[in-house]
């Protein structure tokens, strides 16, 4: 797994999973549609990505679909970084 | 025609999708006053049948209390039916202010402002007191009306893991650069029935210069030694800056809510909160009933004590027959079934047994966390509880879940 995906996976694990370690996720785990991350709590993930990678994620890109897996989030970040 | 065929087809398609997802909500018509035992017409047109109610928020059994009904009747005769005005034009009676003062005294705050509902209080309060330089940090399981209210506010939004003080502390550290911080939580969480760790929250808020907001809708009137709420239970009376609560549950159960707390915050709500400014407030008849509720609640702890005893009896009974319940001390007692279909089947069979309790499943609760939420009332007598337990035992045996834990139920029914 590349560094970008690992950083996002680490953030999501720390930010959204229970501290008891009973649940693990991979880069393909559905986050939004499975209920691990709800649209209300998604704001902190968006803020983390914008700050860490120096990007601005427009509202039209911050959709539940684009944020549903670590792989998709990483693809979005890559696209926006190139765009910048 | 403005309402085109395509619009009708699209809405019908949306409704069908809701049905297919098993999320279609249907009302059940109750033909009697709200009580421990009610007459229900379900499905619509069916003959009425009497069932024991385990799903009302009628915690203190005051919804149909004769003294409350009599006070409401007197208020109707004395102060009329409606005000035909918002509060600040000609919609405020002396009794509105009297009720606000009674709530202030009961909740141990500085001032109170009534709203048409607690949903309206939550919709209006954040926008009235916070701006874009500020941050709101909410527990992830707060009520939907708080989520809506936060969305209407320009302040930065953030959330912390449910009841996690360590995660909240991280967030408070992260947002030290903001002008003001507001920590937001329910006092009692409506789906799990657990209490917020309010003493720890208040300590962290004081350490990191943050204000504290608590929605006490499932607590006011019965949590704490004298029923004043979670802040009394947790020993932080006077240290919570904003309380919102409802008159629509324990405190008479009709409708209405309020923002109660620091004087300046309440006054800013009076000046800016849109649901207060642009809607009629609680009707005079409800104010009269609620004033009597406050008399009853402050005169004696008998009803909240009975609710506490009923809760202990019910929790012990469910555990004894081998059902898996969420531990806790509130009168919200979830019976965990984990599987959504199982929760619906058990609720239906309980209804056939004369027990009215509702199944909850995703997206109302997390996936794999389906449950029947039972709620106790001071109006329940031991006989009601014993009949309820007997029905749960019969239905639980039918589905083979007595004595089974989460993993065993999961193996039998999946998640």
Write up this protein.
The complex is a heterodimer of chains A (84) and B (415). Chain A is mainly alpha-helical and 84 residues long. In chain A, 48% of the residues lie in helices and 0% in strands. Chain A is built from 3 helices and no strands. Chain A has helices spanning 3-16, 42-53, 70-83. In chain A, helix 1 (3-16) packs across helix 3 (70-83). The longest helix of chain A is centred in the N-terminal third of the chain and has 14 residues, at 3-16. The two termini of chain A are 24 Å apart. Chain B is of the alpha/beta class. Chain B has 2 domains: 31-60 and 302-413, Alpha-Beta Complex (Aspartate Aminotransferase, domain 1); 66-299, Aspartate Aminotransferase, domain 2. Helices cover 43% and strands 16% of the residues of chain B. Chain B contains 16 helices and 14 strands. Chain B has helices spanning 5-20, 66-79, 87-90, 94-107, 118-129, 144-151, 165-174, 198-207, 230-233, 263-272, 274-277, 284-299, 302-320, 340-352, 382-398, 406-413, and strands at residues 29-30, 37-41, 49-53, 111-115, 135-139, 156-160, 181-186, 210-215, 242-246, 257-261, 332-338, 355-356, 358-360, 370-375. A 7-stranded mixed sheet of chain B has the order 4-10-9-8-7-5-6, with helices on both faces. In chain B, strands 1-2-3-12 form a 4-stranded mixed sheet. Chain B has a 3-stranded antiparallel sheet with strand order 11-14-13. In chain B, helix 2 packs antiparallel against helix 12 (284-299). Chain B is globular, with a radius of gyration of 22 Å. The model of chain B has no long low-confidence stretch (mean pLDDT 97). The chains are: A mainly alpha (84), B alpha/beta (415). Chain A binds chain B through residues 16, 18-19, 34-35, 38, 40-41, 43-44, 47, and chain B through 140, 147, 150, 157-159, 161, 164, 166, 362-363, 366-367.
